[in-house]
Amino acid sequence: MEKTIIIGTGPAGYTAAIYTARANLEPVVIEGFEPGGQLTQTTDIENFPGFPEGVDGNTLMMQMRQQAERFGAKFISGEVVEADFSKDRKTVRLSGGEELEAQTVIIATGASARYLGIESEQKLIGRGVSGCATCDGAFYRDVPIAVVGGGDTALEEALFLTRFASKVTILHRRDEFRASKIMADRALAHEKIEVLWDSVVEEVMDVEKNEVTGLKIRNVKTDEISELPVHGLFVAIGHKPNTDAFKGQLEMNEQGYLIAEGVKTKTEGVYAAGDVADAVYRQAVTAAGTGCAAALEAERYLGNME
Using N-to-C axis directions, what is the helix angle for 181-189 and 152-161, rounded to 10°? Predict the structure, then answer.
């Protein structure tokens, strides 16, 4: 039986691995099928402390992984598909059928941004297509960009992006926002924001530059196709926390985010770190902070058991 299993990587999982490894908890880290998480798709990160010139997301995650390995963390490929936290021995089962037991578990499986799912969009994620305005907005100074969505999050992101972009076009498939009235009023009144109602993205154009150069837009009422020249597309249609494997084992809210007090779930010895329990901030640095906190809590829990 292991002392600590960490499920998921990214800044939360890797930070938890660094701290638990340094505490001699000999953590086993289950990497999932996307080691390093969403940041591996980000070419430039300018807001992570310690990198004044910015850092490539994949490079940052690889350096975190190497740091955890240096202190003795063990990494296993695979994805957790089922868990049993009802006993003192916490059990997780991997997609390949392997079962692992541990005294403590840190869940850092993150939350995946919902995208439109069209091929041209997927090809340009991290190269002009983003699911996080606060992460990437500063890269789009004085250029036109677009935001897809009609809820509070989409309008908040659009308003935030007006700090940088020359113009922000909101694309919404309906003829009115789902957002609160106050957010809708703010967006509609902003001089940099234009709204294209009844509109969906048919294609993200890159003109062989491997970066966003425009969008093909379809009006859902008339089927008319038009082109919108933009340098960035921000998709703000929600996030899905990666918690399916823990249904029935841990408390979640309606969206599927794990409910925790700080990083402690209601199940002793099980901790939630990063975006899997954070629907508000969703930043690399906040995820890393909760990874640290979860590791410290796991260390205290094991110390009290002894």
Answer: 30
**For residue 210, what pLDDT band results from cuts at 50, 70 and 90?**
confident
Q: Indicate the pTM of the whole model.
A: 0.78
Active-site position among 44, 56, 135, 292: 135
Nearest partner of 106 among 11, 39, 238, 42, judged by Cα: 11
SS3 39: helix
Please confirm, yes or no, whether 292 is among the known catalytic residues: no
Residue 200, pLDDT > 80, answer: yes
Yes or no: domain 119-235 corresponds to CATH 3.20.20.70: no
CATH architecture of 2-113+239-305: 3-Layer(bba) Sandwich (3.50)
Q: Which of 56, 84, 136, 292 is catalytic?
A: 136
Out of 44, 56, 88, 132, pick the active-site residue: 132
Instruction: Spell out the domain ranges in the chain.
Output: 2-113+239-305, 119-235
